[in-house]
Design a protein that fits this description.
By secondary structure, the chain is mainly alpha-helical. The chain has one domain. It has a three-stranded antiparallel beta sheet. Strands 3-4 form a two-stranded antiparallel ribbon. The radius of gyration is 21 Å and the shape is globular.
Length: 379
Amino acid sequence: MRRNRAALSSAPTGAGTRESEISTLDQQGNNFDFLRLFLAFLVIYSHGCVLATGSYSREPLFWLTHGQVTCGDIAVDAFFIISGFLITASFERSRTLLSYFKKRVFRIYPAFIVVNLLCALCVLPLSGGSFLERSAGVNLLDFILQTARLREFHYVHAFAGNVYPGGINGSVWTIFYEFFCYIALALLGLSGILRANRVLLGILAATIVVSLLFAYNHWTLAKHFARFLPLFMAGVVFYRFRQRIPLRTSWMICALLLLALAARLPYGLPLALPLAGAYLIFAVAFHPHIRLHRIGRFGDFSYGTYLYAYPIQQLIMHWIGRPISPLLLFALAASSTLCIAVCSWYGVERWFLHRSHGSSKAVLPLLCTEAPEPERILP
């Protein structure tokens, strides 16, 4: 197989078989753009089932797993696994702590601020909702504080006539936990733990155990941290061990079967996703015979798709005024959301992303001094 920077480095391993390593991050040679956009559309479909009918009963994975998990849950978990991998690469390529956080802030905040503004100024009035407080000053302060915290602003009575009333943007709650993971990764890097692979393995194992304990005991306090940290850490560990991980089709099949079995067992997914799920994701991302990397040549529309889909779905249901087929809602919402995501990319995200790689004064040098490379990352 041809070897170059845009493909997996491969080596023959006897009897006509080939073994590849997960060892390249070149954006033109992997399938991360496709995976992130696919996962964003999977979230649209999953949310569409409940927004169109009022329940998840028609969501395939929900009834296959007896209500344990939905397609949207799996998609969000996969986002965190991919993010752990790519953000670790970004950290190691950043010259300074300041440049690392500059890239993270410029990637997350601009599009988030814009979608929150549009929801407050356009979607909320159209939904028939109102702010929680009547004082304009309090409303503005709440909007600023919640947006700074990567949260949705407070409101009431939104989409009261919809099949699933009350929510304007039910997707953005995960962004806060994504940014928390960025901070946690910086602490690991500055402490030197990010280079201690055995310690990272121990941390991954500990977070998986904690996640299982939360699931088993149904603890609610900090449950989202317990859910997302092992997934993000799995991405970190896979990045650190990327030169040692063989890419084999047989392992991909085993990982898929293990995930299918885990989805049928109580508390099986918190154990299987950070291991089998992560392997399957990165195997698809770097498999030499899965060539989907050209999908991102026009831009990365996955973050905008994730941010705008939910309010668009709610608006569609508001205008239709009755339950519809989830597939019909998906078709209507996916096409319109993608159009807005394209506008978000070219009008907001790309503009700030280019500026996030500008020069900055040296403040706390990081693990390596490579010049940072352009990246397209969805949380």
